[in-house]
Amino acid sequence: MTDTGARTARPATTGRAARELLAEAEALLGRARAVREDHARAVDAVRAVLDPLLASLAGRELAAIPVARLKDVTEGRLRLGALEQAGFTTVGQVHGTARYELRLIPGVGAHTADQALAAAGQIADAVRETVSVRIDMDTPDDTTTALVIALHRLVEAGPDARRAVEAAGRLAERLDPLVTAAAPAGSRLRMLFTGREARTRALDAVAALGAALKEAADQELPMLFGQVSVDLLRAPESAPGAWVDFELRSAEYYSLLAELSGSGPDRDAAEGFLPAGIADRVRALRLDDSRLRVSLRGYQSFGARFALAQKRVVIGDEMGLGKTVQAIAALAHLAARGESHFLVVCPASVLINWSREVRARSTLRALPVHGAERLEAYAEWRTGGGVALTTFDALRTLPEEHVPLAMLVVDEAHFVKNPATRRAQAVAVRAEHADHVLFLTGTPMENRVEEFRSLVRQLRPDLADVVSSTHGAAGSQAFRRAVAPAYLRRNQVDVLAELPALVHVDEWEEFSAGDLKAYREAVASGQFMRMRRAAYADPAASAKLERLRELIDEARDNGLKVVVFSYFREVLATVGEALGPEAYGPISGSLPAARRQELVDAFSAGDGHAVLLSQIQAGGTGLNMQAASVVILCEPQIKPTLEHQAVARAHRMGQVRTVQVHRLLAADSVDQRLVELLARKDRLFDAYARRSDLAEAAPDAVDVSDGELARRIVEEEQQRLGRPE
Hints:
CATH architecture of the largest domain: 3-Layer(aba) Sandwich
Number of strands: 13
Pfam family, one: Helicase_C
CATH class of the largest domain: Alpha Beta
Shape: globular
Low-confidence stretches: 1-12, 471-476, 682-704
Protein name: DEAD/DEAH box helicase
Keywords: ATP-binding, Helicase, Hydrolase, Nucleotide-binding
CATH topology of the largest domain: Rossmann fold
Domain Helicase ATP-binding: 304-462
Largest sheet: 7 strands, parallel
Distance between the termini: 95 Å
Strand content: 5-15%
Domain Helicase C-terminal: 547-700
Mean pLDDT: 84
CATH superfamily of the largest domain: Tandem AAA-ATPase domain
Strand order of the largest sheet: 3-4-2-5-6-1-7
Radius of gyration: 31 Å
């Protein structure tokens, strides 16, 4: 391999030196052309399978659209009587018929045939933009297997493939004219017979060529082109190997699939329905991903750029959309631009996950600043830089000296919604010295809109002062405009078309005699929490426990992994005793973060069926349980957000199977009262948080305090069952 850097370090004017320089440029251009051709062939191999598959899906859609819809496209001008009489009932039939065949139908002239085909074509184009391929690994066929194998080559090449292709394009655009202009300098004799202006252009081109080759060598482009070509020219993976890789990295496969099929999410949805001015500003920022090790989805790239462009923001994406990787992408961009110090503050339960993610998804240095040696780790970070990872509690014990922060990331930022707490104050001190501040939370508010305002106030006091309860009264659009500079939220349904179905099933059970006895005693005691767990007080007679066993037996028969959530440790202990050694856990708030992660890893690693038990407060925050495709909730929760978070641990990007959610409920009990009373609260939560909107109702309508709810239910149940004498 020629040492381009050493070669271009000496002056090159004309003759031999210029010829060698031109030869190096031609060789590098050859590598650049080769990597682009290799990538194009790999893409063509995917399209050879994908395009017919998309056409088939679009054909099915068109076959279900009544032919009368053609009138909608032509605003009623198209006469369909002759077509309908000839047996045309769907748009698909018209679209699949040649013009001359339509004209043979009595009563269909050239104008009608052209109108009908044009209208059908418009509908077909619209349908093609909406269809997307879902790969079902439980029922693979030859076509999807071929698609997975073709995609595997590009996935294996990784994000370097895209970087190499883009760099090769830029390099060719730069070098091609320089090589042409510098060509006369390769021969002294030719230069003697070249005019002064052409000679000057040739010498200038030689100098520019030397600088361009040195820059390419500094960026290690020759090595990048060579390695990516090797990756793209590997023999195709075997079908079993490709399917195994798909299960492990399905998000990357679907990311490529969306890119190649053009079936990504609606742009407005992917950009959180931001006003045009802000969205344009974010799009204009070019994300430097040279220090990333993963490819980003389009909406993820937009989220990272939003954080960079707007500087102090909340990303409130729904659980499972990759808020962590968006934050890492923003950090990597700043690091690539020369910044050195970054700080991530998060709950202890996700500290290990953050450390893993930073190392796996970027080239950034991750330094946990936690535990007994946190001060030493902090000193090391202060001196050497990197991404310091600490917890809310540990942050308060660290020196408050001024360390210039390129970015502060606060994960599960709703933990600092109350500015009067010490954790919020500690975060505020660091935020004052940070150029960028990024709050991450899937639940920016739980019971009150004021909590959301509190988060924004810590980032943009000026904006928080503008946002008030009057925006709720004024309608959702007013609120959206008010918070847009600092708030971005996207939902799974809007941006992950490939995410498998989420099936909710409420499992209503009748109390057994033993259940009813325990429940009546709990009601008589007036203890709300005792009422909530009474259905498990007598394990031998528990109707809920029996149904839980049945669900797990069914999952075992189908080789599915199950996560069982409960608010109560006592309930999990009862479930654990009933299931025996097959159950991992339970994960609880008192369990060290490292042990929690170990349990999740063990649960995820094994093939086939497994059961993981977890307190919903501990397992519903931060831990990824996407190996599970069955979620069992032992009882309904007071806060809808707890259930949303817990389910999202399994139903998130990377999940490859339908997720079944079974909520165990006892009829005529505290469960039923909770479900009824919280139904409205859940709908309002959706209206406020999930769509980044305010409902028409006043903000206070969302507030149902836990204590008030408990008192109301206890009183109603005592009245229904009769107060004790």
